[in-house]
Specification:
193 residues, mainly alpha, 2 domains, 3 helices, elongated
Length: 193
């Protein structure tokens, strides 16, 4: 990023933050961040957030079919974001807030969702193969017809999740003693070390 672009970005971010504080809403800069992400400039959105001293806030953003392959969204707020058909393969969503997000039919192959909060999210038909979901909160998540083969679920909470028709391979899905399953679901056996 050039110095001029960063300087202008800093002014824009601070102005947006000032507007948000005056109006009591973060919506102004959230929409700016979403516009940048939709245009493929996630790095610039992260810079603006950093300069403004706020987390990357994409809560409620309409990001249908957005390409975030390999994106670093660590700690981002994507609560109630609209992400159907999005490409999040290899994305870093460590400790991201995805509560109530719509990720239906998204691709999350090899995504890192360590410690992410996905409670109440819609993951219907998601391809989430070989992903790291260790310590993730998946309570009340709709995983209907999702593909979890090869994903790490150690320490994840799946209480209340809809697991109808999910695909997983017993030898490659890695739950552990701390993984919590919905009532009535027969989980794969623990992996032998």
């Amino acid at each position: 990023m050039t110095g001029d672009k960063l300087a202008l970005g800093a002014v824009a971010a601070l102005a947006a933050l000032g507007l948000a504080k005056r109006r009591g809403s973060r919506g102004e800069y959230t929409e700016q961040f979403a516009d940048l992400v939709r245009s493929g400039d996630l790095d610039y959105a992260r810079e603006l957030a950093t300069v403004a001293g706020v987390p990357l806030d994409l809560s409620g953003a309409d990001l249908i079919s957005v390409d975030l392959n390999g994106a670093n969204l660590t700690g981002a707020d994507l609560s109630k974001a609209i992400l159907p058909y999005s490409d999040l393969r290899f994305a870093k969503l460590i400790r991201a807030n995805l509560t109530g997000a719509d990720l239906s039919v998204a691709r999350l192959h090899k995504a890192d969702l360590t410690g992410a909060d996905l409670s109440g999210a819609n993951l219907w038909g998601v391809i989430i193969t070989s992903a790291n979901l260790s310590g993730a909160d998946l309570r009340d998540v709709d995983l209907t017809y999702s593909d979890l083969r090869g994903s790490n679920l150690s320490g994840a909470s799946l209480r209340g999740a809809n697991l109808t028709g999910i695909r997983y391979t017993i030898d490659s899905t890695w739950p552990d003693i701390d993984t919590t399953w919905p009532d009535g679901f027969t989980p794969p056996p623990l992996r032998k070390k």
